[in-house]
Amino acid sequence: MWTYLWQNFLIDAKVRSYIADKILILYNQLECESLLEIWPGKWSITKLIQTISDHFFVVDMDPTFYDNWQLHITNWQFILSDILELDVEAMLKEKTLSPGTTLVVWNLPYYITSPILRKFFSAQIPWNWFAWGIFMVQDEVGQKIRSDAKKKSYLRWLLNFSCDVKYLKWVPAKCFKPVPKVKSCLIQLTNKNEQLPIDRDKFVEFLELFAPFSRKTLGAIQKMIKKKSDISFEIPESLQKKRLEELDWSHISQIIV
Questions:
Q1: Same domain? 219 vs 167
Q2: Among the three residues 135, 161, 191, which one is the final residue of a domain in this structure?
Q3: Residue 176: what are its φ and ψ, rounded to 5°?
Q4: 7-22 b/e (C-beta count within 10 Å ≥ 16 → b)
Q5: In this structure, are 218 and 96 located in the same domain?
Q6: Both 249 and 145 in a single domain?
Q7: Residue 123, in any domain of the structure
Q8: What is the pTM assigned to this prediction?
Q9: What total number of domains does the chain contain?
Q10: Closest Cα partner for 57 from 24, 14, 11, 106?
Q11: In terms of domains, do 48 and 170 share one?
Q12: Is residue 2, in this structure, part of any structural domain at all?
């Protein structure tokens, strides 16, 4: 069975080697002590990265792949779980490991990308919780969340509060089986060297209030919100005519005070 939960499997050997090399470099660069792979598919990347770490964890919710994995993977621990339900921090602490020294890699079905990212980058998660890592995502998503994106969506703001998001490589559809109908890309997430001097909880609250009306100016959104709720943010006059996608961190610091 080639598909499971709308997953397309990476079959291109050059791209697989590229990903494995990037994971190795980043793992050593960040001085990690454990490696977490989410939804490894048919273990094509797993086989290439299994010797990188003495603490290698593979998380998947499909038990039918388990028998095949254990024939090919030697240095790993399989976690049968839905990553959205798994308490990753508790799992690592049980093994005396820390999320901060754990590198995460994934090639998820694209329909679940946003929920996963929202889980790991929610207001309840520390800004430097994981060492982060290399991810395969839909190209349209990768273009929108990269740190140098001109337009800034809710997800882009949320990720870039904690991380630098680097667009690594476009991956053609022919590199997968079955061939997907969308373009793909590889992105790299690494923690910022220093936390931004902006209250994270207030920033997330601001995003949740203003992002649903991103096509409107901040001034117009502020007026709408004040009519419906006592919770609001005072937008400086100089930013009244700007849209959320046009702001930068200096603008945000004027709003989140």
A1: no
A2: 191
A3: -120, 160
A4: bbbbbbeebbebbbeb
A5: no
A6: no
A7: yes
A8: 0.87
A9: 2
A10: 106
A11: yes
A12: no
Last-in-domain residue among 167, 191, 215 = 191
- What tens-digit pLDDT sequence spans the chain (257 residues)? 234 455 688 999 999 999 999 999 999 999 999 999 998 877 889 889 999 999 999 998 877 766 666 656 666 788 888 888 999 989 999 999 999 999 999 887 788 888 888 788 765 667 668 889 999 999 999 999 999 998 888 889 989 998 999 999 999 999 999 998 889 999 999 999 888 999 988 998 999 999 999 899 999 999 998 877 776 788 999 999 999 999 999 999 999 98
- 132 located within any domain: yes
- Does any domain span residue 4? no
Please say whether the beta carbons of 179 and 11 come within 8 A: no
**Distance from C-alpha of 25 to C-alpha of 22, rounded to nearest angstrom:** 5
Which residues constitute the domain of residue 233?
A: 200-255
Contact 37, 29 (CB under 8 A): no
Contacts 24+ apart (CB under 8 A), 213-217: 214/153, 214/154, 214/243, 214/244, 214/245, 215/243, 216/243, 217/241, 217/242, 217/243
